[in-house]
Amino acid sequence: MPSWPTPWIGRPEVEISYHKDYSHVLGRDMELKVYGHAGRPCLVFPCQAGRPWDFENFGMVSVLAPWVDAGLLRLFCVDSLDDESLSGHGDPGARAWQLEQYHHYVAGEVLPRMLTWGGASDATAMVMGTSAGGLHAAISIFRRPDLFDTMIWLSGLFDTRHYFGEWRDATLYENSPLDFVSGLPNDHPWLDRYRQRTLIAAAGQGDWEEEALASMRAMDTLLAGRGIPATFDYWGHDVPHDWPSWQRMIAHFMGKLLPLE
Fold first, then answer.
1. 21, 64, 106, 221, 250 from 25: Cα distances, Å
2. pTM score, two decimals?
3. How many domains does the chain have?
4. Contact 103, 82 (CB under 8 A)
């Protein structure tokens, strides 16, 4: 298990630390940025092929600074391996396998450290992602609702067809939430877990949101049909697939999840 140092590198708005640790699952060093000193742990996936500092560089940390600085929220921004899985151009089986390994890295190495960070004893964590990061967020909570209790999905996808077309194998099936949830038998214990979770998905109806909207509508229909409550929020035609849209969305939803006094 990686050993993450505890000193923080301060900034006026929030407390920040950078980490680079060896992943035994992936067999390489992986980078991570952490924002905050206390509060609900939240795993943050970057956009496609993004990096741990993108959430900060594109203004999302500044938007969430009131919650982070107040000790209500801690952000754990992970690196991606999308160039070797989702957006790669090699053998699809190898790409699907890499996607699976990335999931195990997150659930088996990153999350346990998050839940005990700074002496905390959290049992579960929030997860969020924008664009391609939304797919990773959905994979995380739908595969492991015992570990994640809240999903914030912004303009993402709920299946892998954008990246793999109609190609499928058993590994990719596990990482395509629309297919995975659809295939669960009615007595599967995960269905009751989903009903106890907070599932939030939002997309605009502006430029470049067509695929996200189609995927969101499909998951909306699926969950409703299985009696799983979720929030699917369709924003206006003036809301494109872009960071300013996600800044507005995340402030709106975080205000509902963690009201500031």
1. 12, 31, 9, 35, 31
2. 0.94
3. 1
4. no
The answer to the question of residue 106 being in a domain is: yes
Residue type, 179: D
19-32 pLDDT, tens digit each = 999 999 999 999 99
Q: Is 7 exposed, middle or buried (0-12, 13-18, 19+ CB in 10 A)?
A: exposed
Range of the domain at 116: 12-257
Provide the CATH number for the domain around residue 147.
3.40.50.1820
Q: What are phi and psi of 201, to 5 degrees?
A: -135, 140
Asked if residue 4 belongs to a domain, the reply is no
Q: What is the 3-state secondary structure (H, E, C) of the chain?
A: CCCCCCCCEECCCCEEEEEEEEECCCCEEEEEEEECCCCEEEEEECCCCCCCCHHHHCCHHHHHHHHHHCCCEEEEEECCCHHHCCCCCCCHHHHHHHHHHHHHHHHHHHHHHHHCHHHCCCCCEEEEEECHHHHHHHHHHHHCCCCEEEEEEECCCCCCHHHHCCCCCHHHHHCCHHHHHHHCCCCCHHHHHHHCCEEEEEECCCCCCHHHHHHHHHHHHHHHHCCCCCEEEECCCCCCCCHHHHHHHHHHHHHHHCCCC
Q: Residues 135-180: pLDDT tens digits?
A: 999 999 999 999 999 999 999 999 999 999 999 999 999 999 999 9
**41 within domain boundaries:** yes
| Residue 114 lies inside a defined structural domain of this protein | yes
Distance of CA 130 to the CA centre of its chain: 8
| Cβ atoms of 5 and 93 closer than 8 Å | no
